[in-house]
Amino acid sequence: MRVLGIETSCDETGVAIFDTERGLVADALYSQIAMHADYGGVVPELASRDHTRKLLPLIQEVLDQANLERRDLDGIAYTAGPGLVGALMVGATTAHGLARALGIPVLGVHHMEGHLLAPMLESEPPAFPFVALLVSGGHTQLVEVRGLGKYRLLGESVDDAAGEAFDKAAKMLGLDYPGGPNVARLAERGDSTRFRFPRPMTDRPGLDFSFSGLKTHTLTTLRKLQSAGQLDEQGKADIARAFEDAVVDTLTIKCRRALDQTGLKRLVIAGGVSANTRLRERLSGEAEKRGARVFYPRGRFCTDNGAMIAYVGAQRLLAGERDDSVMKALPRWSLEGLQPPRTPND
Ligand code: ATP
Ligand code: MG
Ligand code: FE
C-alpha cells in the first residue's frame, strides 16, 4: 500500500510517500524558518499562507522522486492535530480533496504519534514495548508504548516544553529562532564548571517536568553578568552550556526513573530536541549502564516531517482505519486518547 503523508501543523511543510512493502520511497520538506525568523517565532497567519503555496508543488515533487502518478497512491494521511488550526486546515483540506478526487481512503493522524514512531523509519527500529521521551517545541512527555495506539502517559511538563525553553533561552542570548541548535552550538565553547543551573523537579519522586524556572534562572544570570560588565561571548557560551547541561541532566534523570518504574529496556527519544547531541550521548551512556538501548530518528526526522505522518498513516490505513467523512483540524488533542487502529469490522 502506497500512502502519501502530509504534515502542516506548524512551520514545516512536509510531504512523503511510505510504501508498506518497500518502506519510505520519497520525502520532501520545505521549512518556513527563514520567514518567521524576522519575528522571533512562528506567525500563524503567515504559516498557513505559506503551506498553501508550497503544498501542491511538494506533492508533485515526491511523486516525481518515487516515479509515481497520483493514481498510483492507495491512501492519504495528514496531520490532524495538535498544531496551529489554520496551518492544519491547509493539510486537511488538501488531503480530503485529493483523496475524494482519487477515490482513495484518507486519515487524520496525531502529530505526536508521528514523532513517537519516527524511529520506526530507521534500519534498526525499536520493538514494542518501549518508553518514549517526546521532546519537541510544544511537548515534553514520557510515554509507555505497548503497541500502535497503546500509549500511557507517565509524566509531562507542567509548564514550558524543553524545546520552548531552548527557544526562549536562545532569544535571551540574542540567538536566532529556532534556538535549540543555536544554543547547542554556542554551548560547545562554554565552560561547564562556571555556572550550575537547577535541575527542576528532580529532588522529588515522579516523572513530571518543569522548565519555566530555568528560563528565569537564565535571565537572572545574564543580568548579573551584564551589570558586572562580563557579558562577553565567553559569558554567553558559559550560560548556554549551563542551560543545556541542566536540561539534559533533568531529562536523563527522568528517563532513568521511567525505565526503572516500567522495567523496560528500550528507550525511544523523538521530537526536535532529540536532535541534541549531548542529550543523545548522555542517554546512550545511561542506557548502556543498565543494559538498555536508546533509539532515535535520523536528524531530519527529529523535527517535523512528512515521513513520520506517512508511516503512521500507512500502518493505520493498512489495518482498515479511515475517516473519509470527517475533516479534522484539532489544535488540542491528547496522545493518550488514541486507540489501536479502528478496523471496519469494529
Ligand atoms: P510539537 O511537535 O510539540 O508540536 P514542534 O513541531 O514545533 O512542536 P519540533 O519541530 O518537533 O517541534 O521541534 C522543534 C524544537 O526542537 C524547537 O523548539 C527547537 O529549538 C528544538 N531543537 C531542534 N534541534 C535542537 C537541538 N539540536 N538541541 C535542542 N533543541 C533542538
Ligand atoms: Mg518546526
Ligand atoms: Fe513537531
UniProtKB/TrEMBL annotation:
| EC class (word) | transferase
Domain named Gcp-like: which ranges?
24-311
Task: Indicate which residues the UniProt annotation says bind substrate.
Answer: 134-138, 167, 180, 276
Where, subcellularly, is it found?
A: Cytoplasm
Might you give the EC number(s) for this enzyme?
2.3.1.234
* Keyword Plastid in record: no
Annotated keywords: Acyltransferase, Cytoplasm, Iron, Metal-binding, Transferase, tRNA processing
Which chemical reaction does it catalyze? L-threonylcarbamoyladenylate + adenosine(37) in tRNA = N(6)-L-threonylcarbamoyladenosine(37) in tRNA + AMP + H(+)
Annotated Gene Ontology cellular components are: cytoplasm
GO process annotations (BP): tRNA threonylcarbamoyladenosine modification
Q: How is the cofactor bound?
A: Binds 1 Fe(2+) ion per subunit.
| Molecular function terms from GO | iron ion binding; tRNA N(6)-L-threonylcarbamoyladenine synthase activity
Database matches in CDD domains: ASKHA_NBD_TsaD_bac
User: Residues that bind Fe cation, according to the entry?
Assistant: 111, 115, 304
InterPro entries cross-referenced by the UniProt entry: ATPase_NBD (IPR043129), Gcp-like_dom (IPR000905), KAE1/TsaD (IPR017861), TsaD (IPR022450)
- Top-rank taxon: Bacteria
Q: One matching Pfam family, short form?
A: TsaD
Query: Per the entry, which co-factors are needed?
Result: Fe(2+)
Report the protein's function. Required for the formation of a threonylcarbamoyl group on adenosine at position 37 (t(6)A37) in tRNAs that read codons beginning with adenine. Is involved in the transfer of the threonylcarbamoyl moiety of threonylcarbamoyl-AMP (TC-AMP) to the N6 group of A37, together with TsaE and TsaB. TsaD likely plays a direct catalytic role in this reaction.
The similarity annotation says: Belongs to the KAE1 / TsaD family.
Which protein is depicted?
tRNA N6-adenosine threonylcarbamoyltransferase
**From which lineage does this chain's organism come?**
Bacteria, Pseudomonadati, Pseudomonadota, Gammaproteobacteria, Oceanospirillales
